[in-house]
Amino acid sequence: QVQLQESGPGLVKSSQTLSLTCTVSGGTITPNDAAWNWIRQPPGKGLEWIGALHDDGATYYSPSLKSRTSVFRDTSKDHITLQMSSVTPEDTAVYYCVRAMSLWGQGTQVTVSS
């Protein structure tokens, strides 16, 4: 069974750059005109879409996060990376990797300290 696994530092200091990776296990995902999405859920709030990397190489970002967010494929390690710069405590959330808006990772907690 194909699964997605997010990983990264659980604690980041304000103003630093957050880097998370999404790794596929249990099989492979063939490019099929879909996208790798990053979504987060701050404590006590709803889901917030961050950005996506489409199979054709195009990237899309939430307007509110676009200036400090990047989603790309690390071909050397075959995983999808989310980088977010200049983080603040408001970026504290559970971050999810989602394939084609249907296959979700379990999520990884990120806490930004002030």
Summarize the structure.
By secondary structure, the chain is mostly beta strands. The protein contains no helices and 11 strands.
Q: How do the helices and strands line up, and which of them pair or pack?
A:
Blueprint: E1 3-7, E2 11-13, E3 18-25, E4 35-41, E5 48-54, E6 59-61, E7 69-74, E8 79-84, E9 93-99, E10 103-104, E11 108-113
Explain what this protein looks like in three dimensions.
This protein is mainly beta and 114 residues long. Helix content is 0%, strand content 53%. The chain contains no helices and eleven strands. The chain has strands at 3-7, 11-13, 18-25, 35-41, 48-54, 59-61, 69-74, 79-84, 93-99, 103-104, 108-113. Strands 2, 4, 5, 6, 9, 10 and 11 form a seven-stranded mixed β-sheet that branches. Strand 5 (48-54) and strand 6 form a beta hairpin. It is globular. The model has no long low-confidence stretch (mean pLDDT 94).
**Count of individual beta strands:** 11
Q: List unreliable stretches of 5+ residues.
A: none
Number of helices: 0
Distance between the termini: 39 Å
Largest sheet, in brief, is: 7 strands, mixed
Q: What percent of residues are in strands?
A: over 45%
Structural class per helix/strand content? mainly beta
| Rg from alpha-carbon coordinates | 13 Å
Helix content: under 10%
Order of helices and strands: EEEEEEEEEEE
Structural shape: globular
Overall pLDDT confidence? 94
